[in-house]
Amino acid sequence: MLYLFAAPVLAVALMLILMPGCIKELRKLKFGQTMYELGPQTHLNKKGTPNMGGLVIGLVTVVVTVLFAALNYSRLAKNGGELARWWTLDNGLWGLLFVALGAMAIGFTDDYTKDVKKNHEGLKPMQKVAGQLVVGLAFSIWAYSYVGSDVILPFTGKTWNLGIFYIPLITLTVLFMTNSANLQDGLDGLLSSVTVVGMIAFGVLAVLMSRLTGAKALLGETSRDAVAILCFTLAGAAIGFLRFNHYPAQIFMGDTGSMFIGGVMVGAAVVLKCEFLLLLVCFTCVMSSVSVMLQTAYFKYTKKKTGTGKRIFKMSPIHHHFEMCGMKETQIVAMYAVVTLALAALAILSAVKWFA
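Below the sequence we write its predicted structure tokens.
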């Protein structure tokens, strides 16, 4: 249990130490955010704010997680044979890190194209989707082989075996969640705040699975402990990043960070077999994507019917709608954090039924 506290504390400390130098270096390299001209006009003054802070979030999270997961596994191991399993594919840590770093690599490429090449469009949509599908497919095949195709049904104490359909469904979930996290990163401190709450929730779920009767039938001990450490570590990294990312932001995480976070979200849910709880813990991210899809579909439908496209929201994703309705960025961030906290608590309560 000591590692679950030490890992996030170290992550916070590293972020506080590394970020000032990172901000200075990014300014020197002119890795500044390019702003979308059709976006909220209040955001135009953010142009040039250093971007790609998510690279530090990802690297700190990975390094600290691997360090403490290795120390914890060494402590738990009883013989050399057990230690040897650390490097095998049935250790859920490697699959989780693969999907997170794979998503981060796509985000980094997109940021580099936008901020260094000064091309606001970044990667073409099909390039980004293709990359996410490749990462998602590889991850889902790994999960099908080493985690299993059964998923936990919240509040029922039962699981549902999806069989071979598990692979395409998880692939699409990776695509959806990485894009959802990316869409939510639109206000100072928004995704960072939600990440702190969401990762603590997933960390608590992993701890519960490690301790409650019946969990061993669902998950390997190595995977549960590694997920808990990773989630708490990312929460710590996000707290440290918030010191520089809260309004008015000194740095943005960019697609590099948001896609890394989306990858961790879906990866943790898959390894813990609680994919359905993404709808609760990551509700605000999900609604960011849903609001964009609704806005696009309704605009196209009304344009086809009347010749003039109409909108449901003043702007999507929905956090921009709230902003254009007069809410301050800090108010929206606080609202999203409270909603995430309430739904995350509900998700944690669902674990009681799983192992009753």
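The chain has a mean pLDDT of 88.
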